[in-house]
Amino acid sequence: MTATPPPSGRVPAGPVTGPAAIRTVGLTKRYGSVTAVDGIELDVPPGDIYGFLGPNGSGKTTTVRMLLGLVLPTAGTVEVLGARIPKHARSVLHRVGALVEAPAAYGHLGARANLSIMDAAGPGGSRRTRRARIDQALEQVGLAGVGRRPVKAYSLGMRQRLGIAAALLRKPDLLILDEPTNGLDPRGIQEIRRLLLDLNASAGTTIFLSSHLLAEVEHLCKRVGVVDRGRLVLQDSLAALRAPTGSVVLRTPDPEWAVGVLDGDLRERSGDRLVVRATDPAELNARLVGHGIRITELTEQRRTLEEVVLAATTGSSDRVDAAVPPTVGPRAEVLATDDSAWDRPPAGPPVPLPTRPARDTFSWPAGRDTPEPGPGWQPSRSEPARSEPARSEPARSEPARSEPARSEPARSEPARPEPVRPAPDDRRPGQSQPGLGSQPSRSGSAQPPDGRSQPGPGWQPSPSDSAQPPDDAEVDPGGSAADRAGSDQPEARSEESA
Amino acid sequence: MIGVELMKMLRRPRTWVVIALIDALPTLVAFLLALTDVGPRPGTGPAFLSAVLNNGVLFPAAALAIVLPLFLPVSVAIVSGDSIAGEAQAGTLRYLLARPAGRTRLLVAKLVTVLVFVAMAVVVVVVTGYFVGTSLFGTGQLAGGNIVSVSGEPLSPHQAALRTLLAMAYVAFSMLGVAAMAVFLSTLTDSPLAAAMGALAFLVASSLLLTLDAADSIRPYLPTRYWLAFVDLFRQPILWRDIVRGVGLQSLYVAVLLGAAWANFSTKDIKS
Fold first, then answer.
1. What angle, rounded to 10 degrees, do the helices at B2-10 and B103-137 form?
2. Which residues span the domain enclosing B207?
3. Structural domains of chain A, ranges and CATH numbers in brackets
4. Of A316, A391, B140, B150, which has the fewest CB atoms closer than 10 Å, so is most exposed?
5. Is the Cβ pair B96, A89 closer than 8 Å?
6. Residue of B12, B100, B270 with shortest CB distance to A122
7. Does ipTM exceed 0.85?
């Protein structure tokens, strides 16, 4: 996975065994009447790379702070590396490297002095090895040549690198990183990503990555937890979340023929692009080619992480609309009472999905996965039907609970035969309706991959095509020395160019 | 931890600027006195100043009296107010506590640092006071090396030195009430300025009430009430009553305020 050799001095080790790296039970934090974190149950096994996602203001940072004993929970328990926090913080937190929100340092001191102070401020940092550890950490993050310049003269990227160096200083078993690539340029992001993957692979370091950069998480993480308005609405492996939807997307210069051949398996067509229900892409390809149909492109359809997360969450709390506040929605209420929808097995044949502009993705009957959707997993036709009544409801901001008569009958009717297409006049164009995510529905998973959802303002669109696997071979680390020297990395690059 | 905090304070340029400024005022006063040879009439102006013209050995005590009412408390309030709030404002508090430094340990280390700062400031003032005083005003050879105490009796140089040391200790101890107040406020707010200003407001209020006859009944409990009692150390014999009361009162303030600071800080949600 990584192109760089393991950092010198580090003994390669297997994955950390033992208790969960992070486990929280019913973790809750209330500030007065505001519940910032509501019963979060995190489970991060040792050796994992865990992505902790959620819109701004959803409780990510508060959770991270509770993991580190900075914020004391109102209820529930936190265990980090097998020890209770905050009670036994002293015995275990020195094995945790943390970056909480922005990095911080004493501006009048240099990088080494800062790291030295932080190292001396707690247990577990041996004075004898301090200098060597500082040098190694600075080298790992690309600040080896930084000298004695005071931190107040650093660029944003250099501060970020210094913050990561501080987290790495004691070769931690667990890294808790909140937005670790803030302020870094694309090359810096790539370096840090590679460093983290390398630490995970060579030393078995567990990494807990809190971020709202979906591409970041998609490239790094094995497991993902999504938090929304204080609740953990999703916790699963990335592979399972991005399992094939049971459809194949293909392009052909002969769409008319193809439609004829495919017959009932066609789900959706826009020009020369067809979405076809097929569990075996190879078989489909053979069938089409057998009919003499030319294929220019054929891919298994997978949901992007962005689609998964947008479907699971409501709006950002930093967006404040005048008419319909996105945070006031029925979503959390419905979820709290409708746990059964999570466990219900997906059923029913696939539904052709209405074609609509990408802009509207937010207002689709949003989808949500079962914990382990298999590859042959199909969207259920009952869910779109269920979401329709809410869709046409005029009072969008009212909690769903106040409308039990509306939502209940629809829910108790799981096998409604025909898919309901939303009437066009139902839509309110240009207005995102995150409240609709409240209806647990599986049809969202069948979204066409190019119907990329338009993220809300709090979300950063992935810089690269998130359907692509992480491509580490793309950037040549050696050829970039000049580039780096010009940027925020004043490292003496002797070993790499040699 | 304490060593780390001390290093942090000593490596901060601000520490030395503040100490230099505290030291500058009595030095300036000494030069003005030496140039003009016009001392305040006995019983007016800062304590000891009228006696200093005859004997420079008393100038350290005079220097303490000059910085005690305002300069010293201001600097102590700034340094102690910065203790926790400054780390919070810089964002380093969360890293120190996640390190984990331990909240009580951090608070204790900060208190020790403040104490060391106060001691340093007092020592610097006294030492420069001694050199400036003796070089500008002589050592009072006319009186045979003896110093005239506040109550008129002569003091031997040995006695004077001892009493100056006692005075230093008492002045430093008097500052602990301010320090405790500023540290307590520092755990409440993330703004070091607010904490320092709050502690100063506390002092100004106390000084104002001292001058108010209507506040007579609460006067013995005001934190600045016995500050100038260190003058009594230079009486012959030493008048201990106010000094003992001053120490007791300061201890009470320190205990209550530091207890409050600890209670607040050890259960606080660190959101900075």
1. 40
2. 2-266
3. 22-239+473-497 (3.40.50.300), 243-302 (3.30.70.980)
4. B150
5. no
6. B100
7. yes
